[in-house]
Write a structure and sequence with these properties.
Elements lengths: L5 H8 L2 H4 L5 H4 L2 H16 L5 H21 L1 H7 L6 H24 L1 H9 L8 H6 L13 H10 L6 E3 L1 H7 L16 H7 L7 E3 L3 H4 L5 E3 L2 E3 L19 E5 L5 E3 L8 E4 L4 E4 L6 H4 L7 E10 L4 E11 L9 H13 L8 E4 L8 E4 H4 L29
Parallel strand pairs: 10-11
Antiparallel strand pairs: 1-2, 3-4, 5-6, 5-9, 7-8, 9-10, 11-12
Length: about 400
Amino acid sequence: MAIPTAEAFKSATLTHKTKIGLVDLKGGYGGNIALVLAALEDYWEHRQSPHGAVNEMLLYNVWKRCSKWLKVKSQKIEKSESGKVSDCFKRRKEAVESLKAEVSAELERESPDKLRLLDGYESRKAEDPLALSVSGYAKKSLAPGYSLERKYYEEHKKEGGAGYTVSASYIRETFKQKEKLVKKDFETLTLKDVEKNFETTAKSSVTYMNKIARLNHLVVIRNRLLGDIHDTPLLMEEKGTGGHLMCPYAMDMYGNIFIYMDSSTPEVIDRTKTKCRLVRVKNFNHSTFLAGKAVLCAGNMHIGYDVLNKKLEPGKLSCIDNGSGHYQPSKENLLNCLQVLEVEGVNIDAVRVADFSGGADKVVVYWGKDFQTYQNPWPSKNTPRDNTLTPPPVSLFTGA
């Protein structure tokens, strides 16, 4: 079998009345199944793109729409087993399940690691005991002003499938240049203020990842080490210098960690009704990982140095902080993040922990073993209280 054409899927899922011409297409084709068809039409129209990322995103969009249809219709599906639903619904159910299976097979051929992770991405919600502990932790939404990104995305970009939105960082830096906004504060700007005064050009936009895109940046923990989706332990060094650098991360509400180690913003899909293309927007922020949704914590971390043995070791966590201006996580958010890492088997005792919750000019630094009780902060940012441990050779993040 293969992925069906849009025409074949439409024929298999139309109502009987529509098929014989008694009602128009809109009258016999509901909104949910229409979204599946639209995603399939998009795939067939743009699948020959030379960019592998486009094909992957197109396949994912069909997979997502099929999954959503099956989820929405789950109660009706239970009834279908006893024959208490229409023949049309049974045909649609069979067609959607078959389509999802074929798309999954194609995704597996193109990106086997991602399909494996995609299928289990939200398993923590119901199966993983960690979810029970994480669910009680305080979540952190975008801070005032920065929340404009998500609001604009939901209003203008989300349904179009675009992987970017207006950048709150750009707005913060430039809004005083707008005559109508001079007397306003960044934290109190409204969506209407943004809509009237800013456009989502490449310069004023920020990347927003969807699920398949963020899987590229998922951290997988095996044997106490932090690795990529191929189970390769991570080593953070600046390209060509041998120096170490902190990289931005975000932890979602299910304990999944996403980290970005590249120096450039990733390409994202810009999808309209007539075209589907890759674009590279200017900004990448902590909001990028989860498309502006709430996090457990966000900040910066370094992986690849063993503090206890004073040597490079891929996969070893050496530094972590909560330095995110977009989310402004609290000390509690950072503590919860470390607790999740401990549950996953990561030893945080000799990890340098920097708390930015008091502001970038009032950073407090701890060893991980002390941060859990908020005791023994370092006398200075670079001088540890415990002289038996030497700080890792990684510069402290300089600004939230």
